[in-house]
Amino acid sequence: MTTLADMLREFRKSAAKAWRRNPIIRIGTIIFVVVLLVAVLAPYISQHDPLKMNPLNRLKGPSRANWFGTDELGRDVFSRVVFGARTSLQVGLSVVFLTILMGAIIGLLAGFFKKLDGPIMRIMDGFLAMPSELVAISLMASLGPSVNNVILALSIAHVPRMARLLRSSVLVVREMNYVEAAEALGVPVPRVLLKHVLPNCLSPLIVQATSTFAFAVLSEASLSFLGVGLPPYVPSWGTILSGGRQFMMQAPWITMFPGMSIILTVLSLNLLGDGLRDLLDPKLRKIAS
Amino acid sequence: MSRYLVRRIIALIPVMLVVATFAFLLVHLVPGDPASMILGDMATVEDVERLREEMHLNAPLIVQYITWLGRVVRGNWGNSLYSQQPVLAMLAERAQPTLILSVSSLFVAVLLGIPTGVLAAVRRGTKIDAAILSVAMFGAAIPGFWLGLVMIMYIGVSLGWLPTSGYQPLSTGFFNTMQYFVLPAIALGFPHSALIIRVVRSTMLDVLNTDFVRTARAKGLSKFMVIGKHALRNSLIPILTVIGMSFATMVAGTVVTETVFSIPGMGRLVVTSVMRRDYPVLQGSILIVAAIYVIVNLVIDLLYVWVDPRVKY
Q: Are residues B111 and B9 part of one domain?
């Protein structure tokens, strides 16, 4: 049996090895860290207030004063893209956190308690029969546009995948001798679940987390682009694209830069996910090579 | 086989029941009174009361649920709160462009994905392989709607080769209709081809290492026969699975793509019904998309038998 501390130590060791040997992880991490830094340091990097309008300076091309040009209200596109990174990562991280939390609870319950398995998984199957984007957009109809509601809708849309994944690992781990031993020793069930079962189900979860993150970034952008995600005044890559759409021909820069930011972020997450999968699942290693 | 089919169809009932329950509960997720939320601030008390009556909101939740479910099963999906048209008729009217878009996007994804994936596997470890993998990695990260916008900008408008928005029904001629779908199908299909490339490549790599492929080579069969008839044929099951998954996601992806290219299909109907809080239409769209999804999955499972005669149900 492994404890969480062992797992972390093991993970750190293999992560260091992966960094040295696996260029995919290296590239993915570097891009992601850059995006993360941009998001954290947004107020210091941007030269302008992302919300400040300047009607005299609208739809201007990229220049020394406005690196990415200005939008239809004269706002600085560079500052908006930089602050958009903040919004995207905030949404992405929160969705990952909530999805793992809810998915872990549901997956543990379904995988460990045979009586709950049937009903819970039928409900999950029903949700999996609807594309995640459709679940999220439908929820937005009732919740209304705001950052928290986007996070909630995207999390609910992605929980069934996480729950199903976790359940399948729990089903395997449940049969292990150390779980049986813990139960025989009279360890209370919640403790068995958290200390003995969950830590041993984490590795597929980590890989899934990167793809959930990528999904969240992409979906937030498309929901906001459609006008049913974030309110238009919040700077996010989706809202910038939504506003820039009408001015695509006069001011292509409003559309180009947020799009490329999305691509870079999603690319880095996909690379990280691929790298982690190779790292954590030796059976799949040959597929990637 | 037929027993399997019956069992599978019966298994769809609980799945669709969950979908229907979700669609039903959407209305009740609204904080406060759904009727006054739908009508907005300007509505009078009488208007709100009339809508509450129309939406049967005054009955207890469970009664509402059962009557609603009963109506849905009998094919009465209600009327749009906005245009008063029957929901089923609205969906039927918009089905054609959405189906054309999904199927042509699938065509793009498959026609691009399979040959490129095979090429990458056959040329494993070469520069071609590396280039294909990088493009696939990049392609998977591109948001389809953004690709659509960029194509409208540079191919549609600047070069003027293809229409960038709208739609003409199939009755105006196949080629006339299809020219409206070239750009949307690429926007929706290209990111998915990236996924197909990777699956095709990895399964082909496995199959190319098997004994029967070596035997086929040793027999002196042409490269084309070895790859096409022996290797690809035996890689089809995972490929079929990923194609099925892609198709289902593409049906959902029409929501954004149709908005970008102003195609009056079901996807656009979803967006407008979300904006207008037109719940009957939204509920109908959810049911239809979920039904398409489960049917596609069932068809894929049945295709396994045709692709690989060893699979028996």
A: no
How far apart CA B48 and CA B37 sit, in angstroms, is 9
Q: Does A252 touch chain B (CB under 8 A)?
A: yes
Interface test with B, best of A27, A81, A106, A130 (most B CBs within 10 A): A130
> Do residue B158 and residue B47 come from a single domain?
no
User: Which tokens go with B271?
Assistant: 């967006």
Q: Which residues of chain B have pLDDT under 50?
A: none
Say if the ipTM goes beyond 0.85: yes
CA separation for the pair A90, A147 (Å, rounded): 9
- Which range of residues forms the domain containing residue B285? 91-307
Contacts 24+ apart (CB under 8 A), A149-154: A150/A91, A150/A220, A150/A223, A150/A224, A150/A229, A150/A230, A151/A91, A151/A94, A151/A95, A151/A98, A152/A98, A153/A223, A154/A91, A154/A95, A154/A215, A154/A216, A154/A219, A154/A220, A154/A223
Overall average pLDDT of the A171-194 stretch: 90
On chain B, the residues whose CB falls within 8 A of the CB of A288 are 202
Please identify, among B40, B73, B106, the residue that sits at the C-terminal boundary of a domain. B73
Angle, helices B2-28/B279-307, rounded to nearest 10 degrees: 160
Token pair for residue B215? 């035997």
CB contact under 8 A, A142 and B256: no
If asked whether residues B116 and B217 sit together in one domain, one would say yes
Of A127, A143, A245, the CB nearest to B149: A245
Contact of A225 with chain B, judged by CB distance below 8 Å, is answered with: yes
Residue of A nearest to B27 (CA): A142
Residues B41 and B106 grouped into a single domain: no
User: Facing residues of A76 across strands?
Assistant: A70
Quote the pLDDT of residue A144.
85
pTM: predicted TM-score of the whole model, two decimal places: 0.88
Mean pLDDT, residues A71-96 taken together: 88
> How far apart (Å, rounded) are the C-alpha atoms in residues B273 and B278?
5
* Domain assignment of residue B217, yes or no: yes
Together in a domain, B146 and B68 = no
A226 CB near a chain B CB, below 8 Å? yes
Subunit contact A241:B23, Cβ cutoff 8 A = no
Distance from CA of B311 to the nearest CA of A (A): 24
For an interface test with B, the pick among A88, A132, A134 (most B C-beta atoms closer than 10 Å) comes out as A134
**Position B24 in a domain:** yes
Tell whether B68 and B119 lie within a shared domain: no
Distance from A89 to chain B by nearest Cα, in Å? 16
Residue A288: pLDDT band (50, 70, 90) is very low
pLDDT tens digits, one per residue of B209-229: 888 888 888 888 888 888 888
- For A86-107, what is the mean pLDDT? 94
Residue ranges of domains in chain A, CATH in brackets? 23-42+75-288 (1.10.3720.10)
Asked if residue B123 and residue B15 are part of one domain, the reply reads no
Helix (H) and strand (E) counts in chain A: 13, 0
Residues in chain A: 289
B212 shares its domain with B290:
yes
Domain count along chain B: 2
Q: Which residues of A touch B251 (CB under 8 A)?
A: 131
B210 and chain A: CB distance < 8 Å anywhere? Answer: no
